[in-house]
Amino acid sequence: MNRKSFIKSTIILMIGGLLTKILGILIRIIMTRNSSIEVVSLYMLVMPTFSLMMAISQLGFSTGISKVIAENKDSSKKILFSILPISIFINICLTIFLILTSHFIAFNLLKNENAYLPILAISLVLPFDSLSSILRGIFFGKEQMVPHVVSNLAEQIVRLLFMLLILPNILKQGLIFTTTSLILINVISELISSIVLIFFLPKTFKLERKDLIPSFKSSKNVLETSLPTTATRIIGTISYFFEPIILTYVLKRNGYSTNFIVTEYGIINGFVMPILLLPGFFTGAISSALLPVVSREYSKGNIKYIKRKLKQALFFSIIIGLIFTIIIFLFPKLFLNFLYKTSTGSNYIKNISFIFLLYYIESPLSAFLQAINKSSLMMQDNFIGIIFKTIFLFILSFIPGIGLYSLLISSCINILITTTRHIKHIKIFFKENF
Hints:
Mean pLDDT: 83
Distance between the termini: 24 Å
Low-confidence stretches: none
Helix content: over 70%
């Protein structure tokens, strides 16, 4: 039964992920083809800040809630109303923070005054994103993947409709208004996602007064997993946040223009990385299905079973990643022309595509470490990888003529270090438990 449940959950998430990814590609195609390179570049410049704020806002609740529910440590209602007050408090603090610092981030850190309003707009998105993340965690923990898939599809459909019906009109309003609108559409899409998830709650879901009283124990159980997960994401997004700042500072000293840096950074993050990360929805689906299964069986001491599940997850991740890597290595211009009507960035793709094979197995390895209560080790590995990435980004950017390849090389170093350390810790775990 557990085997069938794992395979069923994985298949549902893969199909849903595929449909979501197709819609995402359509959205990106419409945005990049209809928008100017200035809009795409400014949007990509703001995204590191957006990602950092989302990581803090979500606080890893989805993963923590999923794990606690899978282990049957508490009821979903008690967990929900124990976490909501924490989420509300965090989002109020983040909103105040962004109101006070948006001007400084745009003018002093990103060196781009056009980024001010888009960064300020992020504060309106965070509460809705946080709520949908909490609700997803409940369904993941119960291994009910259909609500997650349907909510994701609804979210993408809202974005697609925006791109088709509204974007052509707002483009006339200029660079800042367009980029800000692209940020704010997430308010509506995340709200729709949350409504869909609420709709899937069972009809027997009835609240009693005792359910509304937050439980310290429930919060503690969730935070034990969510905090290391969040720390990992925050470390990553802080590094992502400082990427354009480091690149702008160092490369300008080497004689590169701000326009060149912003444009190439937009090409890498807007065109190149989305193509390299396309298989991510498969490995992400595998990881999401793996976490509750391994959590439950590990709590029962079923080590042989979870080892078998990990091997299955890694096998499928490697096969999918290898097939895709070979295709994009051979035909990078085909992908770029089909998606974005440009061949710009094809050399970037060819030069780093194979190192991403390690990236495709990093996600299931991370999920496994979280499920066996090794979140702190996962956080440690990611922290070390990101430290090395940031150091190499800074050093390599000083090399004359390297340009934005410093970003790609340092990213590959991060993937290599993080994944190999994950593998090392998991090997040690099995050696100690057999």
